[in-house]
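Q: What structure does this chain adopt?
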Amino acid sequence: MSYNQFSFAVFLGIIGYTLFLWFVIRLCFSNILYKDKQLGKYFNIAFFLKIGAGIAFALMYEYIYQWMGDTFYYYSNSCHLSQTLWTSPSSYFKILFDLVDNTNIASVDTTFYNPLRYKGNASGLYNIHRFLSPFAILGLRNYYLMSVVANSFFFVLNFKVFLFILKQINVSDKYRRITFISFLCIPSALLFSSGLVKDSFCYTFSSLMVVYLYKLFFLRKISIGNIIKFLFCFYILYSLKPYLLFVFFGSFLLWWGFSLLHHVKNVVLRFAIFPTVMILLFVSLLYGSQFLGTLLGGKYSSIDSMVQSAAMSQYDLKQDYYQGQAFDIGEYSDIEGIISLSPLAIVAGLFRPFLWEARNMGMFFSGVENTIILFFTLYILFIIGPKYFIPLIKNNLFLSFCLLVSIMLSFSIGITTSNFGALVRFKIPLLPFLFYALLFIWKSYQIDRKELSKKSTSN
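A:
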């Protein structure tokens, strides 16, 4: 693959691809966008932001990092795999759908890509090559054009999540703008979820999986279509970053359990069944974690193996070859050590890198966002106060879920990651939920203050 990916011809191709895909996708959403002009405006802004972020990511890696990093190798190998389609279509589809192993490798054309070279790799290289290969075909094996096609696909799914939250969860128009900002416009989330990397898939499919879990468990829309879509989201996360399944499933299960309690209006009855529900939730979480551990195997097969793997990952990311981007919250070797470091891990996952710790443009954007997150957190804790936000969180279960998944994911990232470069990328799945929760509390407080002010003025 050529290292020189950008040219004037490619620039014209980017414009042509972008306008064509914008037209096609907008046509698909035309019924919704025609009825709601504001949504049409949000659609245009979010689409071009997403495409722009993908181009910025590519330019950054080509001209600043000189293609140093995983993204170029993912791109290169997915292009090699895509070439198999033209020499042996049956071989390409066997690899794409993961139907190749030692027993049938002889029947597969491995001229351009040998799946057994990457299959079984713990980092999911084989899977990201497979998932990117259709975009390599549609993008003519050029990084920038692949980026436009891939990010158009991701945008469709991200916009569906945004629309679902507006319609099913956050029905008041007063919170429409903060929902738009949280799920479609966060700069570092946009940047690091728009490259040809695993994070782009994980960012998109983690939030999409929440949508289909909500449809299945809350709305009880148990259809073949919803089950297949949920399983597809599950498969993507399982193939690339399985730890996200523990975080999102655990958070969702608690959300669902507390929603059952919330529907019991009688306070005495709710108090009486509370212990039973808590026991059932604990048992469900325990057996659910064991099931996922058995399914995933390897380092996820037991708590001890997960602790050992986390400690090894943390140690590796602190080494000198990461060029000064390492940080240290302390060492651990058992579950007690992890518990003792959990406050520092959560702080690292939520608020670091701080602005003064930024070493490059990506870290700077994240540092600015973390400063905003820290400001809103302190404002909510000390200005708005627990008397206001605790009842609000208690009565808004999606808000509870957003905070829970943010804390759980920040803990899991903070305890295993000791490198700012990795931390900035790994934390992006929690950013929409965290920003939404903080902005929702702040917005609710502002609305209530205005209403209280109007009442006092009228009296």
